[in-house]
Amino acid sequence: MNMRKILALSLIAAVTFAACKKKVNNVSTVVHASYPTITISGSQFVSIPVGGAFTPPAATAFDSYYHENPTVVKDLGTLDNTTPGLYTVVYSAKNHYGFVGTANVYVAVTNISDSLDLSGWYLRLADPNRVAFVTKVGRGLFRTSNVGGVDTGDISTGPIVSAVFAVTSPTTLTFGSQLTSDGPLSSSLESLSLAPADTTLNYAITEASFGPQVRTFKKQ
Question: In sequence order, which residues have a C-beta less than 8 Å from that of residue 200 and are 6 or more positions away?
Fold first, then answer.
């Protein structure tokens, strides 16, 4: 075999070997689940009169793990300033890995007087130890510490869930549609009694952990 043929066969073998040799690059990226924290300028509880203008509070977002400031997006949802009620404006921010942080601004559309204050302890008219504390957070806007009225003597009997409600008339309250620590919540069959020494809150709630019965809370 002459030299030219030997060189040709060697070249073919080298090319074949190179073609069969695979380059393997195993790249593994560990992504930390970090959610941006949204900071709202001012209060997250806003009251406007019926027909009044709503100006969404400014907000910023920061992801402390990835050290970035994602853009904050505001979703007004079903907010209708011509219809009395409680509305939730959802603020969200997404980091570069797609993890989303959220915060809520609660908007009461009501002409109720700012002098109305339902703050205080309430006893649910059911079994003992079923109490809630109501706090005024805005004109006609309140937060209850125990919306379901579960037995606070033993937290294992059910979730202690707080929620926000608006008073839209001297006889009406509403929870609107909001997201609580235990899931989505809305209300029906709501009524309010402001009789002297007999203030009561009445409502049925729609939430996975609670039954559909009307719950009555009497101020202590």
Answer: 192, 193, 216, 217, 218, 219
